[in-house]
Amino acid sequence: MGESAVYTADVLLIGAGIIGAACAYRLGERGLKVRILEAASAPAMGSTGKSAAGVRVQFSEPTNILLSWESIQEYRQMPEAAYRPIGYLFLVPESEWPQHHKAVELQRSLGVAVEELCLEDAQHIVEFNPKGLAGATYGPADGVVDPHGITMEYLRRSRTLGVELHLEAELLRAFRQGGVWRVETRRATFEAPYILNAAGAWAGEVGKRARLEIPVQPARRLVFATAPTGWKHNYPLTIDLASGFWFRSEGERVIFGKSNLAEVGFSTGMDWAWLEPTLEAGLDRFPWLAKTALDRKASWWGYYEVTPDHNPILGRMPGVEGWVNACGFSGHGVQQAAAVGRLMAEEIAEGRAATLNIDPLRYERFSSRARVAERNIV
Q1: How far apart are CA 65 and CA 117, in angstroms?
Q2: Membrane-spanning regions, if any (predicted)?
Q3: Residues of the chain whose pLDDT is less than 50?
């Protein structure tokens, strides 16, 4: 690309993570000319590639349940997704049981199989200290996938539909002019009637460069890994809702973590000081973790893209012609990407998403009292 080159499209899609790739594929199916602008030197280098790879339907709000459930159905049919239904096990404190029970009733009413377990039955799945707990819930269709494999497959399908991927194409400035968005990068300029912001942890910064306020911030999250344990295990992704500590099997290892909710911004590297409070919470509930050894080289970090209510921002930007958001997933992007791709294609090609009501996740909620009160945030 020369410096004076101008490339046109119907949609400029910012970000080649799993959300951007799914959206590109579905837009390409609609016959739209799509160009993906990715700041990194390869796809899936941000939150997608650093994800703990879980997919679950155990949410408390209908929109989140359905976004995840419909995505899991698609991943089941995609060999590249490497979907493994290892399950999610929630250990629920006494104070949270009434609300959690209501969430299970909602999940079941939407056609999702979720089980309520007494503490004794839950102990047959994972050994834990039952102090302060009322019960557990288990989602047998929840599990893990290969986010990188899914992203690359969507991009492969996209290429067959004429979608073009531009790497090292960081959006430096974007402005609306003559009925199109004009995007400037270091190598070229791009023009299209639509921009779809799927920039993940960088979505807020992308908005600023277009003089838009998009409430998405990066938040570093750490995944600690043990050395091979020396015993056979197939632990589901288990979450102690009392502390926020989670873990699951990863081959012969156990991976685990706990979100530092005070951390916001582009911090980099492993925060080893956070290991102590993480382990303190983990050992209190799961004393057997003391038998494991940490493998620092196998541990990793990445970013959540968080919004004020920890729910994504989907759909058209109010009062801004041709700008659509699919960002702010707050750790739920991998598990909702397949459904979001279809919905954003509807939003752009048909004028409005139709197969699922995304109104609770639209930008307008931030200027009203109609916030989505999702309780099952990890």
Answers
A1: 20
A2: 6-27
A3: 1-2
The three-state secondary structure class of 181 is: strand
User: What percent of the chain shows pLDDT beyond 70?
Assistant: 97
pLDDT of residue 378: 72
**Contact criterion met (CB below 8 Å) for 224 and 278:** yes
pLDDT digits (tens, 9 = 90+) for 39-79: 999 999 999 999 999 999 999 999 999 999 999 999 999 99
- Beta-sheet strands, E only, within the chain: 6-8, 11-14, 34-37, 54-55, 88-93, 115-117, 133-139, 143-144, 164-166, 173-177, 180-184, 189-192, 194-197, 217-225, 237-240, 245-250, 253-257, 300-306, 313-316, 323-327
d(Cα 115, Cα 348) in Å, to the nearest integer? 38
> Quick one: pLDDT at residue 368?
74
Q: Residues 166, 36: contact at Cβ < 8 Å?
A: yes
pTM of the predicted protein model: 0.95
Q: What is the DSSP string of 210-224?
A: TT-----EEEEEEEE
Angle at Cα 201 formed by Cα 161 and Cα 178, nearest 5°? Answer: 60
Instruction: Report yes or no: 190 and 9 within 8 Å, Cβ to Cβ.
Output: yes
Please write the tens of the pLDDT for every residue from 74-86: 999 999 999 999 9
Give dist(CA 164, CA 158) in Å, integer. Answer: 8
How high is the pLDDT of residue 2?
45
What's the Cα-to-Cα distance from 284 to each of 7, 256, 287, rounded to whole Å? 57, 14, 6
Torsion (CA) 113, 241, 314, 82 in degrees, nearest 10 = -50
Q: Please give the C-alpha separations between residue 279 and each of 206, 256, 289, 346, 373, in angstroms, as whole numbers.
A: 36, 9, 9, 45, 29
**What angle do helix axes 18-29 and 147-160 make, rounded to 10 degrees?**
30
d(CA 214, CA 204): 5
Distances (CA, A) of 34 to 88, 159, 194, 364: 36, 10, 10, 26
